[in-house]
Design brief:
Largest sheet: 4 strands, mixed
Shape: flat
InterPro entries: T_IF-3_C_sf (IPR036788), T_IF-3_N_sf (IPR036787), Translation_initiation_fac_3 (IPR001288), Translation_initiation_fac_3_C (IPR019815), Translation_initiation_fac_3_N (IPR019814)
CATH class of one domain: Alpha Beta
Low-confidence stretches: 35-45, 47-60, 66-74
Distance between the termini: 171 Å
Strand content: 15-25%
Keywords: Initiation factor, Mitochondrion, Protein biosynthesis, Transit peptide
CATH topology of one domain: Translation Initiation Factor IF3
Mean pLDDT: 78
Number of strands: 8
Subcellular location: Mitochondrion
Main location: mitochondrion
GO molecular function, one term: ribosomal small subunit binding
Structural class: alpha/beta
Radius of gyration: 44 Å
CATH architecture of one domain: 2-Layer Sandwich
Length: about 280
C-alpha cells in the first residue's frame, strides 16, 4: 500500500515539472519574437487594402481634374491674372490685334485700362486672349446662350414599320401613305414591307411599283434610306424611307424653282412665236 502511494506521488511530481518547463519555454519564445512577425497573414490584407485605396483615390482625383479642366475650357469667363503662359496673343476690346505680349505687360495693361482678360482660342500657339469690359463679357455670354438655345438637340432616330400585301386596295394604300407621311414629317424612319399577293396574274414588279407610288406622294419630304430589295426568297419587298436633310431640301427647292423658270420662259417664247405667226 505504501509502495503504491509513493508511485502515484512520483508520477504527479513528474507531470507538474513537465507543465512548468513547457510554460516557461513558450513565454521565452513570445518575448524574443518581434510583434510584426506574430501575425503575418493578418497584416498582408490590410496593406493590400491600403494600396488599393490609395490607387483608387489617385484615379478619382485625376478624373476630377480632367473634368474640371474641360469644364473651365468651355466656359466663357474672366481669366484675371492667372495666365499660365509666358507669351500670349492679345486682341484689345475694339478688336485690334496687339500681337504677342508677355504676361507681365498684359497684366499692366489690364490695370491701366481697367479691363478683363478672356481666353478666346486655346488651340493655337500661343493661345489667343482678348481684353474686354465687364459689359462686353455679359453681352457675349447672352449671345452664346441664345446660340445654344437655337441649336437643334440631337434626338434618337425612331423607325416605324408598316407591313401589308400587294393586294391592298387604293383607299387603304392612300390611308397608309398619309400615315407614313406623318411619321416622316416627325423625322422618323419608316420601314415598309410589302408581301406578294396570292394573285397568280400579278406582275413581278408590282411590289416595287407600290413603293415608288408611296414615295411619289411625298415630293420634297422623303427619300430612300435603303432602296427596295427582295426578301424571303422573293416573296416580299422591303425598303426604308427617311426624311430629307436640310441640304437635300434646299437642293430640291432650287431644282423646282429652276424648272418653274424654264417652264415660264418656254411658255413666253411660245406666246411670242404664236403672236408673230398671227401677224
Amino acid at each position: 500500500m505504501a509502495a503504491l502511494f509513493l508511485k502515484r506521488l512520483m508520477l504527479q511530481t513528474l507531470k507538474t515539472e513537465s507543465n512548468c518547463i513547457a510554460r516557461c519555454f513558450v513565454q521565452q519564445v513570445v518575448r524574443k519574437t518581434p510583434p510584426a512577425q506574430l501575425f503575418p497573414i493578418a497584416s498582408a490584407p490590410r496593406l493590400s487594402c491600403l494600396i488599393h485605396a490609395k490607387a483608387s483615390s489617385t484615379v478619382t482625383d485625376t478624373q476630377d481634374e480632367r473634368k474640371k479642366k474641360k469644364r473651365n475650357d468651355t466656359v466663357f469667363s474672366n481669366t484675371g491674372r492667372k495666365i499660365s503662359e509666358r507669351i500670349i496673343h492679345v486682341v484689345d476690346e475694339n478688336g485690334n490685334d496687339l500681337g504677342h505680349m508677355h504676361r507681365a505687360d498684359v497684366i499692366r495693361l489690364l490695370d491701366e485700362r481697367h479691363l478683363r482678360l478672356v481666353l478666346r482660342n486655346a488651340r493655337v500657339e500661343p493661345p489667343e486672349y482678348q481684353l474686354m469690359t465687364g459689359i462686353q463679357i455679359h453681352q457675349e455670354r447672352l449671345r452664346q446662350r441664345e446660340i445654344e438655345k437655337a441649336r437643334p438637340k440631337a434626338r434618337p432616330t425612331l423607325t416605324k414599320e408598316v407591313i401589308f400585301s400587294s393586294n391592298i386596295g387604293q383607299h387603304d394604300l392612300n390611308t397608309k401613305s398619309k400615315q407614313i407621311q406623318q411619321w416622316i414629317e416627325k423625322k422618323h424612319h419608316v420601314q415598309i414591307t410589302i408581301k406578294k399577293g396570292k394573285n397568280a396574274d400579278e406582275p413581278e414588279n408590282k411590289m416595287e411599283e407600290i413603293v415608288h407610288q408611296i414615295l411619289q406622294t411625298m415630293p420634297g419630304i422623303a427619300t430612300f434610306a435603303s432602296r427596295p430589295q427582295a426578301i424571303k426568297g422573293g416573296k416580299a419587298v422591303m425598303c426604308v424611307l427617311r426624311p430629307l436633310s436640310k441640304k437635300e431640301e434646299t437642293a430640291y427647292r432650287e431644282a423646282l424653282e429652276t424648272q418653274q423658270r424654264d417652264t415660264l420662259h418656254k411658255d413666253s417664247g411660245s406666246d411670242r412665236e404664236s403672236d408673230a405667226w398671227h401677224q
